[in-house]
Amino acid sequence: MRIKRKNKRKNHHRRNLNIVYFAPSLLTVTNLYFGFLSINFSIKGKFDLAAIFVIFAAIMDLLDGRLARALKISSPIGRELDSLSDIISFGVAPSILIYLWALKDLPRIGSLIAFVYLVGGALRLSRYNVLAARGISARHYFEGLPIPSASMVPVSTVLFFRTPPQSPIFIPLLAGVIFTLPFLMVSKVRYRSFKDINLKSREHYLTVLLFALVLSALAAWPRHVIFFVTSLYVLSGPIRAILLFVKKKKTVEQEDGLRA
Question: pTM score, two decimals?
């Protein structure tokens, strides 16, 4: 009887371990499912729902990475599944969404811009996989705009405006913004990853307070906050690069002046 009880406990423990081991992959598959739903709703013309499901996919993508790191679970299959899910949820789904919502009014050029966005996302994920295979991972900064963040540009635009404004410059301007995203994704412009934030540290009380304020604003004005935060994050990389370039140039000029 004791042996049977021990065997049952061992089997129960193994089942629990299996569930824990596959938990991140289950979240990744959920991410993929939300991406599929987004494409489905875009085709049906329900653009608000399509945009919302991309946001749900982004939440799943955030959770599966955090869970995998917390459980110290990493596998090549899990990494590939995550990338394949990301290219659907944050590459294919947003490109179809923004094309059917607005860019279809630009014949040929609109479909080309949506495709270039998709190619940029695929290249961004490919580079990430190569670096991850070499054991190189970002902690403080990402190199290039992450594809989930890039996908929030078309998503937040659709949610903010609901229907494309009648202004003749809106769609060309939007096309220019979407066309810029793939170049930011494959660039070496650095973006803050926020992985180094330790909420247990006293130094990050201000971060917790700021996060609470953002959540409160999100509950009150969700469309506006998503649009504003997305725009701010996407612009933060180029702005930071420009400021560093100017600072470096001033430093070089000062050193040359001292030498003269």
Answer: 0.84
